[in-house]
Amino acid sequence: MLEDLTQKSKKPLMVLVFLLMVAVIINIVILKLFDQKSAYREAHSLVGIITLMGFVYTFADDKTSRIKLFFLFLISLVPCYLGTVFSDLDIKLLGIGGHRNPLFHSGLLFFILLIPAKRFRSFVPAAIVASFGIGLGSHLIWDLFDHADVRWIPGLNFDRLWLGTNGLFCILSAKLFLSSRLNK
Questions:
Q1: pLDDT at 8 over 60
Q2: pLDDT in tens, 37-46
Q3: What is the pLDDT of residues 21-58, one digit of tens each?
Q4: What's the rounded Cα separation, in Å, for the pair 91 and 152?
Q5: Engineering a disulfide at 138: which of 19, 28, 48, 110 sits with its beta carbon 3.0 to 4.6 angstroms away?
Q6: What range defines the domain where residue 151 resides?
């Protein structure tokens, strides 16, 4: 019985290890493509890619072809990466003292992008906007676990609530938005 359980758990574990290796390789390629060297950037983009893999997996069912899922993943890589980078643009624009500005560390830009994107019924623009939201949401949630201090929001718990709520709303909104376009 124990041997049976071990055999059954080996295959999913092997698949997860393989997918993690794929995510790490993709992360290295993306970081080289954008000439990024920061360890924080590596962590944010890896978390974004792993979140994107899980996001794409949620669409795997009998109605959606594997080719369409693979295409979704490929066209989503760069927008997802840009979503992981967006929140840190406050450093470039406002200096390190303005880092974690609540306007940049929120889902605001993603929700603004959703407004015009809802007019398009096409799958590709929807995938691009949704994957930006996945990247942004993963960045915010990663910062939540990193105990990030969001400027002008008092107290650690309110910061975490801000980051977690915005991150989850980004990911859930991306899922709902793309679901409405995927099988059309």
A1: no
A2: 788 888 999 9
A3: 888 898 888 888 878 778 888 899 999 999 999 999 88
A4: 16
A5: 48
A6: 38-182
Residue 80 in any domain: the answer is yes
Task: Report the domain count for the chain.
Answer: 1
Q: Which residue is listed with tokens 């060297």?
A: 37
Give the pLDDT confidence of 126-137 residue by residue, as tens digits: 999 999 999 999
In a domain, 104, yes or no: yes
Q: Which residues contact 30 (CB under 8 A, 6 or more apart)?
A: 45, 49, 77, 78, 81
In the DSSP assignment, the letter for residue 183 is T
Buried b (16+ CB within 10 A) or exposed e, 122-139: ebeebbbbbbbbbbbbbb
**Alpha helical stretches, state H, the chain:** 2-33, 39-57, 66-86, 89-94, 108-117, 123-145, 156-182
Within 10 angstroms of residue 41's Cβ, the number of other Cβ atoms is 18
Residue 110 and residue 172: Cα distance in Å, rounded? 12
Say if residue 79's pLDDT is above 80: yes
pLDDT at 96 over 70: yes
What is d(CA 73, CA 30) in angstroms, rounded to the nearest whole number? Answer: 14
- Which pair of tokens denotes residue 88? 């840190």
Within a domain: residue 128? yes
